[in-house]
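Reply to thread "Modeling small-molecule complexes from scratch"

Following up on the discussion above, here's a worked example others can learn from. I took a protein sequence and the SMILES for flavin-adenine dinucleotide and predicted the complex. Inputs first:
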Amino acid sequence: MRITCKKTQQFQGEGNSKMRGRLERQHLENTENFRGFAKKYVKEEAAQWEMDQAIPFSVITAMAREGFFALTLPKEMGGEGADYVSYGMLNEALGRYSVSLTGVLNVHTMVCETLVKWGTAEQKERWLPPLMQGEHIGAFALTEPQAGIDLSGLLTTVTKKDGRYFLNGRKKWITYGAAADLFLVFGFLDKKPVCCLVPKHTEGLSVTPIRDMLGFRASALGELSFENCELTADQIIGQPGFAFTFISPFALDFGRISVAFAALGLLRGCLEECVSYSRSRQTGEVLLADRPGTRRLLTEMKIDYEAARHLCLDGAFYKSQNDPLSVEKIFMAKYFASKAAAKHSEKAVQLHGALGCHEQTPTVRFYRDSKTMEIIEGSSEVIESLIGKSLIDKRGQVH
Ligand SMILES: Cc1cc2nc3c(=O)[nH]c(=O)nc-3n(C[C@H](O)[C@H](O)[C@H](O)COP(=O)(O)OP(=O)(O)OC[C@H]3O[C@@H](n4cnc5c(N)ncnc54)[C@H](O)[C@@H]3O)c2cc1C
Protein backbone atom coordinates (compact mmCIF):
# COMPACT_ATOMS: atom_id res chain seq x y z
CA MET A 1 0.00 0.00 0.00
CA ARG A 2 1.24 3.46 -0.75
CA ILE A 3 0.62 6.24 1.72
CA THR A 4 0.95 9.59 -0.01
CA CYS A 5 2.59 11.84 2.49
CA LYS A 6 2.86 15.52 2.23
CA LYS A 7 2.81 17.67 5.32
CA THR A 8 0.69 20.73 5.57
CA GLN A 9 2.05 23.29 3.12
CA GLN A 10 -0.80 22.82 0.70
CA PHE A 11 -3.27 24.08 3.28
CA GLN A 12 -1.48 27.30 3.97
CA GLY A 13 -1.86 30.69 2.40
CA GLU A 14 -4.70 32.03 0.32
CA GLY A 15 -7.73 29.91 -0.25
CA ASN A 16 -7.02 28.10 2.97
CA SER A 17 -10.49 28.47 4.38
CA LYS A 18 -12.00 27.00 1.21
CA MET A 19 -9.83 23.92 1.59
CA ARG A 20 -11.06 23.06 5.03
CA GLY A 21 -13.64 20.32 5.07
CA ARG A 22 -12.55 19.17 1.61
CA LEU A 23 -10.17 16.34 0.96
CA GLU A 24 -7.14 16.79 -1.27
CA ARG A 25 -6.29 14.16 -3.88
CA GLN A 26 -3.61 12.72 -1.61
CA HIS A 27 -6.15 12.28 1.18
CA LEU A 28 -8.60 10.60 -1.15
CA GLU A 29 -5.90 8.18 -2.29
CA ASN A 30 -4.93 7.43 1.29
CA THR A 31 -8.56 7.00 2.29
CA GLU A 32 -9.08 4.50 -0.51
CA ASN A 33 -6.04 2.56 0.66
CA PHE A 34 -7.15 2.62 4.30
CA ARG A 35 -10.63 1.45 3.37
CA GLY A 36 -9.13 -1.29 1.22
CA PHE A 37 -7.14 -2.48 4.24
CA ALA A 38 -10.21 -2.36 6.48
CA LYS A 39 -12.25 -4.42 4.01
CA LYS A 40 -9.48 -6.97 3.63
CA TYR A 41 -8.43 -7.43 7.26
CA VAL A 42 -11.24 -6.13 9.48
CA LYS A 43 -14.70 -6.32 7.89
CA GLU A 44 -15.33 -10.06 8.11
CA GLU A 45 -13.40 -10.63 11.33
CA ALA A 46 -14.53 -7.82 13.64
CA ALA A 47 -17.56 -9.64 15.11
CA GLN A 48 -15.40 -12.62 16.06
CA TRP A 49 -12.77 -10.35 17.67
CA GLU A 50 -15.44 -8.85 19.89
CA MET A 51 -16.63 -12.29 20.97
CA ASP A 52 -13.04 -13.47 21.56
CA GLN A 53 -12.31 -10.10 23.25
CA ALA A 54 -8.98 -10.01 21.45
CA ILE A 55 -7.48 -8.82 18.17
CA PRO A 56 -5.22 -11.38 16.46
CA PHE A 57 -1.60 -10.34 16.36
CA SER A 58 -1.53 -10.98 12.60
CA VAL A 59 -3.67 -7.84 12.14
CA ILE A 60 -1.31 -5.76 14.28
CA THR A 61 1.55 -7.06 12.14
CA ALA A 62 -0.34 -6.20 8.94
CA MET A 63 -0.93 -2.65 10.22
CA ALA A 64 2.75 -2.32 11.07
CA ARG A 65 3.69 -3.49 7.57
CA GLU A 66 1.54 -0.74 6.08
CA GLY A 67 3.25 1.90 8.20
CA PHE A 68 0.09 2.70 10.20
CA PHE A 69 1.94 2.73 13.51
CA ALA A 70 4.22 5.49 12.29
CA LEU A 71 1.75 7.32 10.06
CA THR A 72 2.09 10.83 11.47
CA LEU A 73 5.67 10.56 12.69
CA PRO A 74 8.32 12.66 10.95
CA LYS A 75 10.05 11.15 7.95
CA GLU A 76 13.47 12.09 9.30
CA MET A 77 12.79 9.77 12.24
CA GLY A 78 11.63 6.97 9.98
CA GLY A 79 7.90 7.76 10.08
CA GLU A 80 5.49 8.20 7.17
CA GLY A 81 5.16 11.98 7.63
CA ALA A 82 1.41 12.03 6.94
CA ASP A 83 -0.78 14.82 8.29
CA TYR A 84 -3.65 14.52 10.78
CA VAL A 85 -6.31 14.42 8.10
CA SER A 86 -4.82 11.18 6.85
CA TYR A 87 -4.49 9.93 10.41
CA GLY A 88 -8.15 10.76 10.98
CA MET A 89 -9.23 9.00 7.82
CA LEU A 90 -7.29 5.90 8.86
CA ASN A 91 -9.28 5.87 12.10
CA GLU A 92 -12.49 6.43 10.13
CA ALA A 93 -11.74 3.49 7.83
CA LEU A 94 -10.92 1.08 10.67
CA GLY A 95 -13.68 2.45 12.92
CA ARG A 96 -16.27 1.57 10.26
CA TYR A 97 -15.80 -2.07 11.25
CA SER A 98 -13.93 -2.13 14.56
CA VAL A 99 -13.39 0.75 16.95
CA SER A 100 -11.52 -1.74 19.14
CA LEU A 101 -8.79 -1.71 16.52
CA THR A 102 -8.73 2.09 16.44
CA GLY A 103 -8.30 1.97 20.25
CA VAL A 104 -5.00 0.14 19.83
CA LEU A 105 -3.84 2.47 17.07
CA ASN A 106 -4.89 5.41 19.20
CA VAL A 107 -2.95 4.65 22.39
CA HIS A 108 0.10 3.55 20.42
CA THR A 109 0.09 6.83 18.46
CA MET A 110 -0.32 8.82 21.70
CA VAL A 111 2.83 7.20 23.08
CA CYS A 112 4.83 7.69 19.86
CA GLU A 113 3.77 11.34 19.42
CA THR A 114 4.62 12.07 23.07
CA LEU A 115 8.10 10.66 22.56
CA VAL A 116 8.62 12.68 19.39
CA LYS A 117 7.53 15.89 21.11
CA TRP A 118 8.91 15.47 24.63
CA GLY A 119 11.59 12.77 24.45
CA THR A 120 15.33 13.49 24.46
CA ALA A 121 17.43 12.45 21.44
CA GLU A 122 18.58 9.37 23.38
CA GLN A 123 15.03 8.43 24.38
CA LYS A 124 13.83 8.73 20.78
CA GLU A 125 16.73 6.65 19.53
CA ARG A 126 16.09 3.97 22.12
CA TRP A 127 12.30 3.63 22.05
CA LEU A 128 10.98 4.91 18.72
CA PRO A 129 12.33 2.42 16.14
CA PRO A 130 10.62 -0.69 17.59
CA LEU A 131 7.44 1.33 18.21
CA MET A 132 7.33 2.66 14.66
CA GLN A 133 7.87 -0.81 13.23
CA GLY A 134 5.10 -2.22 15.42
CA GLU A 135 7.54 -4.59 17.15
CA HIS A 136 6.54 -2.91 20.38
CA ILE A 137 3.02 -1.59 20.95
CA GLY A 138 2.64 1.31 23.36
CA ALA A 139 -0.20 2.02 25.81
CA PHE A 140 -1.21 5.14 27.71
CA ALA A 141 -1.67 4.69 31.46
CA LEU A 142 -3.29 7.67 33.17
CA THR A 143 -6.56 6.53 34.81
CA GLU A 144 -6.59 4.85 38.22
CA PRO A 145 -9.33 2.93 40.03
CA GLN A 146 -10.19 5.93 42.23
CA ALA A 147 -9.51 8.76 39.74
CA GLY A 148 -10.23 9.28 36.06
CA ILE A 149 -11.08 12.84 35.08
CA ASP A 150 -9.81 14.35 38.33
CA LEU A 151 -6.06 13.99 37.90
CA SER A 152 -5.32 15.52 41.31
CA GLY A 153 -6.74 12.29 42.74
CA LEU A 154 -4.04 10.06 41.20
CA LEU A 155 -2.05 8.08 43.76
CA THR A 156 0.78 6.72 41.59
CA THR A 157 4.17 7.94 42.74
CA VAL A 158 7.75 7.97 41.51
CA THR A 159 10.18 8.35 44.40
CA LYS A 160 13.84 9.17 44.08
CA LYS A 161 16.24 7.43 46.46
CA ASP A 162 20.04 7.46 46.23
CA GLY A 163 19.88 8.49 42.57
CA ARG A 164 17.45 5.65 41.75
CA TYR A 165 13.72 5.96 40.92
CA PHE A 166 10.92 3.68 42.17
CA LEU A 167 7.41 3.55 40.72
CA ASN A 168 4.41 2.51 42.83
CA GLY A 169 0.68 2.58 42.07
CA ARG A 170 -2.17 1.15 40.02
CA LYS A 171 -3.65 2.02 36.63
CA LYS A 172 -7.04 0.85 35.40
CA TRP A 173 -9.02 0.66 32.14
CA ILE A 174 -5.83 0.82 30.08
CA THR A 175 -6.50 0.15 26.38
CA TYR A 176 -4.27 -2.70 25.18
CA GLY A 177 -2.93 -2.82 28.72
CA ALA A 178 -3.19 -6.59 28.69
CA ALA A 179 -1.01 -6.93 25.59
CA ALA A 180 1.18 -3.82 25.18
CA ASP A 181 4.97 -3.87 25.42
CA LEU A 182 5.56 -0.38 26.73
CA PHE A 183 3.50 1.88 29.01
CA LEU A 184 3.50 5.64 29.31
CA VAL A 185 2.67 6.01 33.00
CA PHE A 186 1.59 9.17 34.84
CA GLY A 187 2.04 9.93 38.54
CA PHE A 188 3.69 12.31 40.97
CA LEU A 189 7.37 12.80 41.79
CA ASP A 190 7.82 14.98 44.89
CA LYS A 191 4.21 16.16 44.34
CA LYS A 192 5.08 17.22 40.77
CA PRO A 193 3.17 15.51 37.94
CA VAL A 194 5.54 13.28 36.01
CA CYS A 195 5.41 10.65 33.30
CA CYS A 196 7.70 7.75 32.54
CA LEU A 197 8.10 4.89 30.11
CA VAL A 198 7.84 1.42 31.59
CA PRO A 199 8.47 -1.79 29.59
CA LYS A 200 6.12 -4.67 30.38
CA HIS A 201 8.90 -6.96 31.65
CA THR A 202 9.92 -4.52 34.39
CA GLU A 203 10.27 -6.29 37.73
CA GLY A 204 7.38 -5.39 40.03
CA LEU A 205 4.91 -4.71 37.20
CA SER A 206 1.93 -7.04 37.02
CA VAL A 207 -0.86 -6.91 34.45
CA THR A 208 -4.42 -8.19 34.86
CA PRO A 209 -6.65 -8.33 31.76
CA ILE A 210 -10.07 -6.64 32.04
CA ARG A 211 -12.83 -8.46 30.15
CA ASP A 212 -16.53 -7.90 29.50
CA MET A 213 -16.52 -4.15 28.84
CA LEU A 214 -19.64 -2.64 27.30
CA GLY A 215 -17.71 -1.48 24.24
CA PHE A 216 -14.18 -1.72 22.81
CA ARG A 217 -14.31 -5.36 23.87
CA ALA A 218 -11.44 -6.47 21.65
CA SER A 219 -9.11 -3.67 22.80
CA ALA A 220 -7.52 -5.91 25.47
CA LEU A 221 -7.98 -3.52 28.38
CA GLY A 222 -5.82 -4.14 31.41
CA GLU A 223 -5.13 -3.11 34.96
CA LEU A 224 -1.51 -2.45 35.86
CA SER A 225 0.07 -2.69 39.27
CA PHE A 226 3.52 -1.25 39.97
CA GLU A 227 5.33 -2.35 43.10
CA ASN A 228 8.70 -0.72 43.60
CA CYS A 229 9.46 -0.85 39.89
CA GLU A 230 12.98 0.50 39.54
CA LEU A 231 13.45 3.06 36.79
CA THR A 232 16.48 4.89 35.44
CA ALA A 233 16.50 8.65 34.93
CA ASP A 234 16.23 8.20 31.17
CA GLN A 235 12.80 6.60 31.58
CA ILE A 236 11.35 9.91 32.79
CA ILE A 237 9.78 11.82 29.87
CA GLY A 238 9.91 15.61 29.99
CA GLN A 239 10.40 17.79 33.03
CA PRO A 240 8.78 16.74 36.31
CA GLY A 241 5.94 19.24 36.82
CA PHE A 242 4.98 19.28 33.12
CA ALA A 243 3.08 16.02 32.87
CA PHE A 244 -0.50 17.30 33.35
CA THR A 245 -0.12 20.77 31.89
CA PHE A 246 1.73 19.82 28.70
CA ILE A 247 2.28 16.12 28.16
CA SER A 248 -1.06 14.44 28.89
CA PRO A 249 -3.12 17.20 27.15
CA PHE A 250 -0.82 16.92 24.13
CA ALA A 251 -1.29 13.14 23.96
CA LEU A 252 -5.04 13.30 24.62
CA ASP A 253 -5.47 15.71 21.72
CA PHE A 254 -4.35 12.86 19.43
CA GLY A 255 -6.63 10.53 21.35
CA ARG A 256 -9.60 12.75 20.59
CA ILE A 257 -8.82 12.87 16.86
CA SER A 258 -8.83 9.09 16.87
CA VAL A 259 -12.12 8.78 18.77
CA ALA A 260 -13.83 11.51 16.71
CA PHE A 261 -12.93 9.90 13.38
CA ALA A 262 -13.61 6.39 14.67
CA ALA A 263 -17.10 7.58 15.68
CA LEU A 264 -17.46 8.99 12.16
CA GLY A 265 -16.57 5.57 10.73
CA LEU A 266 -19.11 3.99 13.04
CA LEU A 267 -21.76 6.46 11.84
CA ARG A 268 -20.98 5.51 8.25
CA GLY A 269 -21.42 1.92 9.33
CA CYS A 270 -24.88 2.71 10.77
CA LEU A 271 -25.90 4.38 7.51
CA GLU A 272 -24.62 1.65 5.23
CA GLU A 273 -26.13 -1.16 7.31
CA CYS A 274 -29.50 0.61 7.58
CA VAL A 275 -29.72 1.39 3.86
CA SER A 276 -28.80 -2.13 2.92
CA TYR A 277 -31.23 -3.76 5.37
CA SER A 278 -34.15 -1.48 4.59
CA ARG A 279 -33.81 -2.28 0.87
CA SER A 280 -34.07 -6.01 1.55
CA ARG A 281 -36.59 -6.27 4.41
CA GLN A 282 -40.24 -6.72 3.57
CA THR A 283 -42.58 -5.53 6.37
CA GLY A 284 -46.08 -6.71 5.46
CA GLU A 285 -46.90 -5.27 2.07
CA VAL A 286 -44.29 -2.58 2.33
CA LEU A 287 -40.53 -2.68 1.89
CA LEU A 288 -38.87 -1.17 4.98
CA ALA A 289 -37.12 1.33 2.68
CA ASP A 290 -40.50 2.64 1.55
CA ARG A 291 -41.75 3.49 5.03
CA PRO A 292 -41.66 7.24 5.79
CA GLY A 293 -40.17 6.54 9.22
CA THR A 294 -37.20 4.80 7.61
CA ARG A 295 -36.58 7.67 5.25
CA ARG A 296 -36.71 10.19 8.06
CA LEU A 297 -34.30 8.08 10.09
CA LEU A 298 -31.88 7.80 7.16
CA THR A 299 -32.10 11.52 6.43
CA GLU A 300 -31.29 12.46 10.03
CA MET A 301 -28.45 9.96 10.08
CA LYS A 302 -26.97 11.28 6.85
CA ILE A 303 -27.16 14.92 7.97
CA ASP A 304 -25.48 14.13 11.29
CA TYR A 305 -22.85 12.08 9.45
CA GLU A 306 -22.08 15.04 7.15
CA ALA A 307 -21.97 17.48 10.07
CA ALA A 308 -19.66 15.18 12.03
CA ARG A 309 -17.44 14.76 8.97
CA HIS A 310 -17.09 18.53 8.57
CA LEU A 311 -16.21 19.01 12.24
CA CYS A 312 -13.71 16.15 12.19
CA LEU A 313 -11.97 17.33 9.03
CA ASP A 314 -11.95 20.92 10.23
CA GLY A 315 -10.26 19.91 13.49
CA ALA A 316 -7.70 17.77 11.67
CA PHE A 317 -6.89 20.52 9.14
CA TYR A 318 -6.33 23.02 11.96
CA LYS A 319 -4.18 20.50 13.82
CA SER A 320 -2.11 19.88 10.69
CA GLN A 321 -1.39 23.60 10.58
CA ASN A 322 -0.39 23.70 14.27
CA ASP A 323 -3.19 26.18 14.81
CA PRO A 324 -3.97 26.53 18.55
CA LEU A 325 -7.68 26.67 17.67
CA SER A 326 -7.40 23.00 16.73
CA VAL A 327 -7.75 21.95 20.39
CA GLU A 328 -11.24 23.39 20.70
CA LYS A 329 -12.22 22.21 17.24
CA ILE A 330 -11.14 18.65 18.00
CA PHE A 331 -13.07 18.75 21.27
CA MET A 332 -16.18 19.79 19.35
CA ALA A 333 -15.65 17.11 16.68
CA LYS A 334 -15.25 14.40 19.32
CA TYR A 335 -18.29 15.64 21.22
CA PHE A 336 -20.57 15.81 18.21
CA ALA A 337 -19.40 12.64 16.47
CA SER A 338 -19.59 10.46 19.61
CA LYS A 339 -23.05 11.77 20.52
CA ALA A 340 -24.33 11.35 16.95
CA ALA A 341 -22.89 7.82 16.86
CA ALA A 342 -24.65 6.92 20.12
CA LYS A 343 -27.95 8.40 18.91
CA HIS A 344 -27.93 6.72 15.50
CA SER A 345 -26.58 3.34 16.57
CA GLU A 346 -29.59 3.09 18.86
CA LYS A 347 -31.84 3.84 15.87
CA ALA A 348 -29.92 1.37 13.72
CA VAL A 349 -30.64 -1.42 16.24
CA GLN A 350 -34.33 -0.42 16.22
CA LEU A 351 -34.56 -0.52 12.42
CA HIS A 352 -33.06 -4.01 12.31
CA GLY A 353 -35.56 -5.37 14.85
CA ALA A 354 -34.55 -8.66 16.51
CA LEU A 355 -31.74 -9.11 14.02
CA GLY A 356 -30.27 -5.83 15.25
CA CYS A 357 -29.98 -7.33 18.71
CA HIS A 358 -27.85 -10.30 17.65
CA GLU A 359 -24.11 -10.33 18.17
CA GLN A 360 -23.38 -11.15 14.52
CA THR A 361 -25.16 -7.97 13.35
CA PRO A 362 -22.77 -4.97 13.39
CA THR A 363 -25.43 -2.70 14.91
CA VAL A 364 -24.99 -4.44 18.29
CA ARG A 365 -21.32 -3.52 18.30
CA PHE A 366 -22.05 0.02 17.12
CA TYR A 367 -24.55 0.49 19.95
CA ARG A 368 -22.16 -0.70 22.67
CA ASP A 369 -19.06 1.01 21.31
CA SER A 370 -20.64 4.41 20.67
CA LYS A 371 -21.86 4.72 24.27
CA THR A 372 -18.28 4.16 25.41
CA MET A 373 -17.06 6.87 23.05
CA GLU A 374 -19.04 9.46 25.00
CA ILE A 375 -16.93 8.64 28.07
CA ILE A 376 -13.34 8.22 26.86
CA GLU A 377 -10.82 10.93 25.83
CA GLY A 378 -12.79 13.70 27.52
CA SER A 379 -16.35 12.81 28.53
CA SER A 380 -19.23 14.78 27.00
CA GLU A 381 -19.80 16.52 30.35
CA VAL A 382 -16.19 17.66 30.59
CA ILE A 383 -16.27 18.98 27.01
CA GLU A 384 -19.48 20.88 27.76
CA SER A 385 -17.82 22.39 30.77
CA LEU A 386 -14.71 23.43 28.79
CA ILE A 387 -16.42 24.79 25.67
CA GLY A 388 -19.11 26.51 27.73
CA LYS A 389 -16.52 28.19 29.92
CA SER A 390 -14.45 29.25 26.92
CA LEU A 391 -17.51 30.85 25.32
CA ILE A 392 -18.40 32.69 28.50
CA ASP A 393 -14.78 33.86 28.92
CA LYS A 394 -14.84 35.20 25.35
CA ARG A 395 -18.22 36.82 26.02
CA GLY A 396 -19.81 34.68 23.35
CA GLN A 397 -17.44 35.79 20.58
CA VAL A 398 -17.31 33.10 17.88
CA HIS A 399 -14.98 32.70 14.89
C1 LIG B 1 -13.05 1.39 26.74
C2 LIG B 1 -12.22 2.29 27.60
C3 LIG B 1 -10.89 2.47 27.30
C4 LIG B 1 -10.10 3.28 28.14
N1 LIG B 1 -8.75 3.41 27.84
C5 LIG B 1 -7.96 4.13 28.67
C6 LIG B 1 -6.54 4.23 28.44
O1 LIG B 1 -6.02 3.68 27.46
N2 LIG B 1 -5.79 4.92 29.32
C7 LIG B 1 -6.33 5.55 30.41
O2 LIG B 1 -5.59 6.16 31.16
N3 LIG B 1 -7.68 5.48 30.65
C8 LIG B 1 -8.49 4.78 29.81
N4 LIG B 1 -9.85 4.70 30.07
C9 LIG B 1 -10.42 5.41 31.21
C10 LIG B 1 -11.12 6.67 30.77
O3 LIG B 1 -10.19 7.61 30.33
C11 LIG B 1 -11.95 7.16 31.97
O4 LIG B 1 -13.00 6.24 32.11
C12 LIG B 1 -12.47 8.56 31.78
O5 LIG B 1 -11.44 9.49 31.84
C13 LIG B 1 -13.50 8.90 32.86
O6 LIG B 1 -12.95 8.66 34.11
P1 LIG B 1 -13.76 7.79 35.18
O7 LIG B 1 -14.21 6.55 34.49
O8 LIG B 1 -12.92 7.61 36.38
O9 LIG B 1 -15.03 8.64 35.50
P2 LIG B 1 -15.14 9.82 36.58
O10 LIG B 1 -13.98 10.76 36.43
O11 LIG B 1 -15.37 9.21 37.91
O12 LIG B 1 -16.46 10.54 36.08
C14 LIG B 1 -17.74 9.99 36.35
C15 LIG B 1 -18.80 10.88 35.73
O13 LIG B 1 -18.67 12.22 36.25
C16 LIG B 1 -18.50 13.14 35.19
N5 LIG B 1 -17.49 14.13 35.60
C17 LIG B 1 -16.33 13.89 36.25
N6 LIG B 1 -15.63 15.02 36.41
C18 LIG B 1 -16.35 16.00 35.84
C19 LIG B 1 -16.15 17.39 35.66
N7 LIG B 1 -15.05 18.01 36.08
N8 LIG B 1 -17.11 18.10 35.02
C20 LIG B 1 -18.22 17.49 34.56
N9 LIG B 1 -18.46 16.17 34.70
C21 LIG B 1 -17.54 15.43 35.33
C22 LIG B 1 -17.99 12.34 34.02
O14 LIG B 1 -18.32 12.94 32.78
C23 LIG B 1 -18.69 11.01 34.21
O15 LIG B 1 -19.96 11.07 33.64
C24 LIG B 1 -10.66 3.92 29.25
C25 LIG B 1 -12.04 3.73 29.53
C26 LIG B 1 -12.80 2.93 28.74
C27 LIG B 1 -14.25 2.76 29.06
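What I'd highlight from this example: The mean pLDDT is 94. The chain has three domains: 9-136, 139-240, 244-393. Questions welcome below.
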